[in-house]
Specification:
Layout lengths: L28 H24 L11 H30 L7 H17 L7 H9 L1 H16 L6 H20 L7 H20 L3
Helix pairs in contact: 1-2, 2-3, 2-5, 2-6, 2-7, 3-4, 5-6, 6-7
């Protein structure tokens, strides 16, 4: 028995995303976070040289060497990863990108972490740790939502690696706060390993 075209159920095409009319720098994740990452790399290296030569004393609760290692991995590299993943993962999953003021809010959390880790904003080690630890869970959620909505299970690699990066940051802070022993360096190594695995996973998509 023939079926008429009118009886066929056609799946409606998804509605196109609304045109973005906000600031250009907040239109895509890489624009804002790559700018932040590049700027922080220059600032952090300048501060490190001042600390190294004794021209400035940090108000952070971390020794200068530990502060430098932390900010290169969980400051600079985390921002670079955010710019890349907030742009690439929604594209791979065909989901809307984080943009506009939600993107700005996420960037402000990252900036707050840099402020507290410098010791300029607050002088409580616990507050410093909590504020700094807030960014990566939010980033993980921001890239996990497109994966979950699309059902692209093979893309879970990247949210899981960001969770691993956060675990490294947590271990680092726990030793700095004297809650555990001999975990700070492991946290730094774990952070580096997580970022290497991000690059390897990305290379597999090329």
């Amino acid at each position: 028995m023939a079926v008429s075209p009118m009886q066929l159920k056609v799946k409606p095409s998804p509605a196109p995303p609304a045109p973005y009319a906000g600031p250009v720098v907040l239109a895509m994740g890489f624009r804002f976070f790559f700018l932040l990452a590049g700027g922080w790399a220059v600032i952090a290296m300048g501060v490190w040289l001042l600390l190294l030569e004794g021209f400035w004393t940090s108000a952070s609760y971390l020794p200068a060497v530990w502060l430098h290692g932390h900010e290169m991995i969980f400051g600079f590299l985390a921002a670079a990863a955010a710019g890349f993943l907030l742009t690439a993962v929604p594209g791979w999953t065909e989901q809307p990108k984080l943009r506009g003021w939600p993107l700005a809010g996420l960037a402000l959390v990252w900036l707050a972490g840099r402020g507290v880790m410098s010791g300029v904003v607050v002088d409580s080690p616990m507050v410093m740790a909590l504020v700094d630890l807030a960014f990566l869970p939010l980033l993980t959620l921001a890239i996990a939502l497109p994966v979950w909505r699309s059902g692209a299970h093979h893309q879970w690699t990247f949210p899981l690696l960001m969770a691993l990066l956060w675990l490294g940051n947590l271990l680092f802070h726990l030793e700095a706060l004297e809650r555990v022993r001999e975990m700070g360096m492991m946290g730094l190594y774990l952070g580096v390993d997580a970022m290497v695995m991000v690059m390897v996973a990305f290379g597999g998509k090329m």
